[in-house]
C-alpha cells in the first residue's frame, strides 16, 4: 500500500501533514530508516510474473518527440519529502526552464489554504457519523489498529467513524515520512511546481483533488479493511518497503518495487489479491485520463509532464500510451 501511495497518488502528499499535526516536532527532521529488500528470495520468479507491469519500468525521465514539434518530457515522481528523492527532482527540474508548460497530477504549487480545503473535503468524505466502520475489520485486528491510529493523534472512538479506505491510506505511510510531511517539508511534485512558478512557466493539473479522492473512496470496504490490517500488522515492513522504494527511485528503476513486494512471503494470497485490485483501480483508469488530458499539451510541443512513477510503466502506462499516439518516447535516464 505504501508503494502505491508514494508512486501513484499525489493528493495524499498534499494533505497528510495537515491530518497528522500531532506528529509535528520542533526537532530537525530525521531520514527514514529501513532494510534493503532488493535481494529478496524469489525475486526472479516474481519479476517473470510481473512482466507486463515492468515494461518501461526502468527509467524516470523520458523524451517525447514528433517531427515538427519541440521535444516534450515525461518524468516519474515519488510523493516523498526524502532528501535523496528531491535530489533526483532537482536533476529533472533543469529541463523546466525550457518548457512551455509543466503538468503535474494536481498542478500547484498548492498553498496552505488549498491544502486546508483538500483536508476538509477529505474528512467530509471519510467520516461516517452513523456507523461503526470497524465492523468490516476482523475482531482480532481491531485493537492493534486502534493503538496505531491513536499514535497518529486520533481518538479511538473517532477512528471508529472513519471509513476504511481513509484509514488504509493513512496507516500505509511510514511514521518517519508522516513526521516529515507534518512539518510541511517540500515533496517532489510540489518542488517541481514551485520551480516552474519561480521561472515563469505555466503549471496545470492533469487531475483534480476531488477526482483522486473519488478513486480511493470507491475502494470496496472489504479490500480497504484488508489493506488497513496488513499495514498495521507489518509496520516494520512498511519501513523496509519505503527504504527500498527510495533506493530504486534513486537508481531510476521504480517499477521493480512491485515484484519485490510480491516476493515477500509475509502476506496471504487474499491480501496480495487486495493489493492488486487496488493497484488496478488506482492506475489503469487514471492513466487513461492523464493521457487524454496530456494530449493537447504534447500536440503543442515543449511540455514537461511529471506524475507518479508507476503511471509510466506497464502495458497501459503513459509511455506506451504516448507511443500509441504516434510519438517517439525514448528513455533519457
Question: How would you sum up this structure, described in words?
Answer:
- The protein has 333 residues and is of the alpha/beta class.
- It has one domain (2-22, 34-331).
- Helix content is 53%, strand content 9%.
- It has 16 helices and 6 strands.
- It has helices at 2-8, 11-19, 43-49, 83-93, 112-126, 139-151, 156-159, 164-172, 175-182, 188-198, 209-217, 221-233, 235-250, 257-263, 269-300, 318-324; strands at residues 61-65, 72-77, 101-104, 202-205, 303-308, 328-331.
- A 6-stranded mixed β-sheet has the order 4-3-5-2-1-6, sandwiched between helices.
- A hairpin with a 6-residue loop joins strand 1 (61-65) and strand 2 (72-77).
- Helix 4 runs parallel beside helix 10 (188-198).
- The radius of gyration is 19 Å and the shape is globular.
- The model has no long low-confidence stretch (mean pLDDT 88).
